[in-house]
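Example record

Each entry pairs one chain with its bound ligand, glutamine.
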Amino acid sequence: MTTRNKIGVLDLQGGVHEHIFHLQALGIEPVRVKVAEQFDDLAGLILPGGESTCLIRLLNIFEIAPKLREAHAQGMKIWGTCAGAILIANHIEGDKSQLGLMDITVSRNAFGYQIDSFNTRVKVPKVTENEVELTFIRAPKITAIGSQVQVLLQIDDYIAAAESDSCLATVFHPELTPSLAFHKYFVEKCGIAVTSELTERPDRTSWMKFARIAKPTV
Ligand code: GLN
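Structure tokens for the complex follow.
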């Protein structure tokens, strides 16, 4: 009999450390998941942003994908951030789906090139009453959802965050901003209490600071 009482971060490729540091700031000591056997203890798993093609290849090479689906079916909740949201989507426009765990349709690289990455500030009332900063890095758009999926954030013509009973999908990167709100929301969705009062990481500045330096001047 397994006890699902831990949060894991898939540690194969992408923004792993940033998620780990955010969880630690909330008083959660996450599991860095490298092999499928580690799913047994997990109440929730974060699939980080990165490169979805690379991530799915690694999941298949290390034979993690079937076990991940099995653990999800047995109650392990999943949060896909950006590339992670692409991996869990049931439909990917113009491509075949990968893990297919959530009834959403995504359009990859829907904002353009890496240089078209951007920040914005919005309110996501279901997650926090404070305005939060959102960082989109060559993000997908969620373009459609199934009847069992709820929209958490709609911007213009696309959905930026959605959830089902067992999955959370965000096309942006809360781990690259100071706010801890989405991490708290996911940990609590997994049935784990967050005791920390912290709402932001004091040591974290926004990723956009670096984007401004990286943007070429014309
Ligand atoms: N563009 C990437 C992909 O399609 C996702 C980018 C990200 O995770 N920030 O996989």
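Residues 6-210 form a domain with the Rossmann fold fold (CATH 3.40.50.880).
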